[in-house]
Design goal:
Blueprint (H helix, E strand, L loop, with lengths): L4 H9 L32 H24 L5 H20 L1 H8 L4 H21 L5 H8 L2 H12 L6 H18 L8 H23 L5 H20 L8 H25 L4 H7 L3 H13 L5 H27 L5
Helix pairs in contact: 2-11, 2-13, 3-10, 3-11, 4-10, 5-9, 5-10, 6-8, 6-13, 7-9, 7-12, 8-12, 8-14, 10-11
Organism: Devosia ginsengisoli
GO cellular component, one term: membrane
Keywords: Membrane, Transmembrane, Transmembrane helix
Amino acid sequence: MPPNSASHAHWTTLMPPGTHRSPAPPLIPSLPLSAPAPVRVETASLTGMALGVAAYSLFAAHDAMIKGVITALPAPQILFVRGVVVIALCLIIGRHRVVIDLWHSKNRMLILGRGLMTLAAWVMYYSAGRDLQLAEMTTLYYVAPVLTTVLAVIFLKEQLTLARIGGASIGFFGIVVAANPSGFTIGWPVIMVLGAALFWAFAMILMRTISRSDSTLVQVFAQNLIHVLVMAVAALPFWQGMGLREIALCVAAGLVGGLAQFILVEAARSVPASVLGTVEYGALIWSFIFGYLFWAEMPVTTVYVGAFLVVAAGLTLALSEHRNRREIIDAP
């Protein structure tokens, strides 16, 4: 008997009488001649992008509050008070559990690094607010999304699509147009804002990594705990008296800033860093609005042109990510 005849006979006897008997299937099935699966690009959800827009809009309001008090108080003191407010909120929501989760986190060093980077970014950024208009600060600071996009490719191995490159480029060009760069004078305030952008870009990369395992509440609590501990050393020996207005603005900045941090971390869970950085451009519009309302900073024509380009870049990126997300079909 041939080697496969026994198995063939057993297979045919199990079939009902009168059933057509087809040849036994080969022991080694033939491989389908198909093209290799294409490399997939992680796409961003529209919900995550909307959360990013909401977070950066809140940050714009937060920055306006800080600018309103930066001439009366040093930046370390403002960040200390704001951090205390955010920590109190985290403890009210998470109680002792948030402390335990932070202690057992495997990303403590990454969390420490992100906290120090965001602290350095904010100290430099708000210190420059003494000499720059809110719109100028925001415009210079928005080199950060471009840096984030580059760093995401290097450290997170994120794939760059044409839409992401185009969105970052158009958005940055809109920032340059709105800024009217001929009006800038290079000095320490400008250098500090650019340095803040670099630190913030690195912090965004770390946030994207940490968000994969640690809860949002733990990250917000840890970041502000680091800020408070460091700023206590810098601010308490030189503490200045605070009036009702300064206290109200610092507390409000803590409430708004804490909510913005929470939403931003949530957005980072579903949005690649290269996309989330481009979403950041949307807050530019709020900066000009707040500058006009509170400090009578009148935008020129180029501001409206630049704002249009920024909005166009964001909408184009959102539509592209949504289309790519719908086209992805998971292989069985």
